[in-house]
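User: Fold this; tokens only.

Assistant: Input:
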Amino acid sequence: MRKLTFPCIVGVVCFLAVALQGTASDTDSIPVELKSFEFKVKEEHANLFGLNEDEPKLFFYTNGTAEAAVKVPTDGDYEVVIKASCDSAQGERAKFKVSIDGKALGKETLLTADEPKEYKLPAKLQSGPRKLAIAFTNDVYKENEFDRNLFVHAVTLKRAK
């Protein structure tokens, strides 16, 4: 039988520590599949919302709400991270609101860039199934002149550190 040397043992312990740390952090980040969102809009406006699977992103071409079920593994402090972009119009970018189980997370969020950027909202959540909603709130449109739109590229729940 071969004996393990001290440096070898240290290497194995370090490897296991890193591997376990990676596993733990994976459970601290819960991606919400974009395809799981359902738009809660009037039938006549349904074509103004959806999932662009080519770029994967949700598109909101007018004011409206998308909801998705999320399973929160444990009670605690989280950040809801929304990666969003927009088409600006009339000197203003898109705004959105986020809620969980009907309770608003903070106030309305104004995008600070047209290109995709992460927006983090703190949330104290209880374990179990939750309903996460994103609402586009400041649409403006004039044919052949301007059109403000919201795009959601990713949604993730992260355990607060």
